[in-house]
Amino acid sequence: MTVTTLHTPSHREALWELESAFDRGDLxxxxxxxxxxxEGRAASTLGLGNRLLVLKPDGSALVHTDEKRTPVNWQPPGxxxxxxxxxxxxxxxxxxxxxxETLTVRFTAVHQLSAMGVTGGRDLEVTGSEADLRRRIxxxxxxxxxxxxxxxxxxxxxAGPMDVFGVDASGTAVVLELKRRxxxxxxxxxxxxxxxxVAEEPDRDPDAAVRGILVAPSxxxxxxxxxxxxxxxxxALEPPEPETPGAETKATDSxxxxxxxxxxxxxxxxxxxxxxxxAETLGTETASDDDExxxxxxxxxxxxxxxxxxx
Amino acid sequence: MTVTTLHTPSHREALWELESAFDRGDLxxxxxxxxxxxEGRAASTLGLGNRLLVLKPDGSALVHTDEKRTPVNWQPPGxxxxxxxxxxxxxxxxxxxxxxETLTVRFTAVHQLSAMGVTGGRDLEVTGSEADLRRRIxxxxxxxxxxxxxxxxxxxxxAGPMDVFGVDASGTAVVLELKRRxxxxxxxxxxxxxxxxVAEEPDRDPDAAVRGILVAPSxxxxxxxxxxxxxxxxxALEPPEPETPGAETKATDSxxxxxxxxxxxxxxxxxxxxxxxxAETLGTETASDDDExxxxxxxxxxxxxxxxxxx
DNA sequence: CGTGCCAGGTGCCCT
DNA sequence: AGGGCACTTGGCACG
Lengths: 311, 311
Prior knowledge:
Two copies of one chain form a homodimer.
Chain A: E1 3-7, H1 11-24, E2 27-39, E3 43-55, E4 61-64, E5 73-75, E6 80-86, E7 89-96, E8 101-116, E9 124-127, H2 130-139, E10 149-157, E11 160-167, E12 173-178, H3 185-199, E13 210-216, H4 221-229, E14 233-236, H5 248-258, E15 306-310
Parallel strand pairs in A: 12-13, 13-14
Antiparallel strand pairs in A: 1-8, 2-3, 2-8, 3-4, 4-5, 6-7, 7-8, 10-11, 11-12
Chain B binds a DNA duplex (15 and 15 nucleotides) through β5 and α3.
GO molecular function (chains A, B): DNA binding; single-stranded DNA endodeoxyribonuclease activity
EC number (chains A, B): 3.1.-.-
GO cellular component, one term (chains A, B): cytoplasm
């Protein structure tokens, strides 16, 4: 692993390092006093101040202040970075086309510039998504209501694809809209669009009812009113708790199997393999990792540490 | 400006520096090989790899790979950072409550750790927002249609606040939904919610029509269909071009004046001070700042630059 | 703090 | 490339 760091470099030195770091495809951080300008989908200006600029080899650029999770300015992946010295300042510019956007960062002073080679390791596993909620429902449709039978996922309609489509015990068509968290009015509108679209499909008996069910952990009062106005229903349901890391493999596999891969078609009978309705068998945590006092005697990796503070 | 940097520190050294940097309220970057775990609103795991961890004094934490604008993992502002050495790894943990969330980053190796003092300079000026589009319409309502008269902004309805509410030349109620960019079906649904809500207000003549107009630069085909189904209209309009930086002050002031500050009430007559309808007088750019070849002779700031590369 | 909504949203997947 | 939508959306403003 290679890290190159310049402390309070001249603009020209910073420029050289930036250009070679661009060539190497390094991840770059620049900390210094700068002003920022953006022009593209919108336009913005930011006065002088100390910020952290991150330049990624995929073309992303981030300008971070000491606050917020969101960068104060940025450039999306696919942009190309350029560096130059202009008017006694180090100018870093990131541009892209379609849409045309330009981010310009002008440094009056660079306090630190680092370039590091970064590779791989981006495979993130997430649980608790809407897809997990859908799996849960497909595994056990009775969670929605007794006798509910899903017939398709992502079935297309004139208003867009529906999360889950099916029939209730009496054979009435049912549209499900799934949300992984508490929802407001927009979710009701979304459901309404789909229900209306299905109701108006030409090959459908115009008198046949179409039910709409919003599946979400909870809904706001306003959403509940709108839901009632339209005669829709709410079923309180959340994504399943994440499985215990050790035992998750089997459960995930069975869930995958229950997921109908073919879209707009009938899902196979939910294979009742792992027939524990909600087996929340927690408690297999590694005891060594709970939160204890900060200091701990631990072996240290060999490595000559150097420390410098400037000014 | 102070920057403290450790190169390939031992975990214990990194720990010390982290704790003092927390105390100082510094912005911290840690580059190293780590695995990441998140549990809270959802849950996720990320295997070993080289990443950049940014810890902000406001509690934000960002884990960045070499790709994407969005961090692969993060913690929102308001969290509290902790550091410890556990099982021979440097563990950085960021926690918050309501909702309960924990981000855990475990470093097997720290390549670089930097701490920098950052203050102020977060005043971003943006133009081209929906608010700008609204100003534009309030300044010249005829842009929507001849004779249109706005009577309120953000007027509340049973379905939520409407962007602009008014009457057309014939006295019919009009609901405007503004979008700064091309829109899809959801914008139509949003407009529909407001129109329906207004139409059903008890003090209103049930036979009186309520028009709905979607003001956006453009709309998708599907949105156009849904719009037509509901008998709504689309007016193609964008946020105004950003003013020339030098001349913007006066224009901005007049625009601010035209903005009705009191909500749910009648806006004062648009003061026709700067009565150029669309004075796109571009062309006052500083010629010194266009894109020219990279190298340029420029004065360099004094400052002893040091450069180190590791391994 | 919850509710509602804009955002330069970003990212993913599909056509 | 554009459409449609989920997201640990984030952030803001208002009740």
